[in-house]
Amino acid sequence: MRYGIFSDTHANIEALSAVVNAFESEGIDRYACIGDTVGYGASPNECCDIVREIAEHTILGNHDAAVSGRMDYSYYYDAARNALDAHARILSDVNMEWLRALPYQVREGEVNFCHGSPVNLEEFEYIFSAEQAARCHEIWDDLATVTFIGHSHLCKSFALTENEVFEVVADKFELRPDHRYIISVGSVGQPRDYDPRASYTIYDTETKTFEFKRVEYDIDAAAQKIFATDLERNFGNRLFIGV
C-alpha cells in the first residue's frame, strides 16, 4: 500500500493542484489529508472540493474545527480569526457539513493519522522538537508504529524507543524495527521552513519506506488572489519565502 499523505493546504488551490498532479506519477493507492484544508488562503471551497474527492481519510485540523464551529478560536490573533470568519461565510453547505463530520484521528493497523500530537487530540498540540515528541511516551502502549501529523507546517521526523527520542534527518528513510515514529508532513499551502515549495509525502507500508517531497507551484497567482480580498496581505507575502 502506497499512501499519499498531505496536510495544511490552507485554501491554497494553486499549491494543492500542483501536489495532486505530482502524486499522479507516484502510484498512490490511498490519499490521506491530515487537516487544515481551510484558513489563511483565498480558495477554501475549491480546496475542500478536491480533498473530498481524492482523500480516503481526512482529519480535522484546528482551522477546520474553528470554521465549522467545533472549537473556540476567539483567542486567535486578529488576522487569522478574520480569515476563519470569512471562510465560514463563503463555504458551501456541503463543505461545511463535511468539516463538521471530520474525525480527530484515523488509525489503520500500524498507521495513525491525526493533525497535532496524538496525546490529547482535541488540544491540537504541536510536535516540532524531540522534547515535544517525547510526550508520546505517555501513550506508548497505544502508539502506532507510525503516526503522521501536520499542524506545525514543518517537515520533521522523530524515531522513538521506549526510553529515547531521535530526530531523523533525512528526506527518505526506512522505518526500523522496534521503533515508533512521529512524522510531521509539512504544509501544502503555507510552508514555514523557508522552502516555499508545496510539501507532500509518501509512505509505502510494504517496504516501510517514507519520503518527503516538494513541488513548485504558481505562488504569485495564489498570493494575488489573497491580495484581491480583505484577507491579511501577509498571508500572501509569506508564501514567497516559506515562512
Account of the 3D structure:
By secondary structure, this protein is α/β, with parallel strands linked by helices. The chain has a single domain (2-240), classed as Metallo-dependent phosphatases (Purple Acid Phosphatase, chain A, domain 2, 4-Layer Sandwich). The protein is 28% helix and 23% strand. The protein contains eight helices and twelve strands. The chain has helices spanning 13-23, 44-54, 62-67, 78-90, 93-101, 130-134, 219-227, 234-237; strands at 2-6, 30-33, 57-58, 105-108, 111-114, 146-149, 155-160, 165-167, 172-174, 180-185, 198-204, 209-215. The strands form two sheets. A six-stranded mixed sheet has the order 3-2-1-11-12-9. Strands 4-5-6-10-7-8 form a six-stranded mixed sheet. It is globular, with a radius of gyration of 17 Å. The mean pLDDT is 97.
Oligomer: single chain
The CATH C-level class name:
Alpha Beta
Query: Which strand order spans the largest sheet, edge to edge or round the barrel?
Result: 3-2-1-11-12-9
Query: Roughly what is the average pLDDT, rounded to an integer?
Result: 97
Shape field = globular
Poorly predicted ranges (pLDDT <50, ≥5 residues)? none
Helical residue percent band: 25-40%
Query: Hey, roughly how much beta strand do the residues contain?
Result: 15-25%
Distance between the termini: 33 Å
- How many domains comprise the coordinates? 1
CATH superfamily: Metallo-dependent phosphatases
Please identify the structural class as seen in this structure. alpha/beta
Number of helices: 8
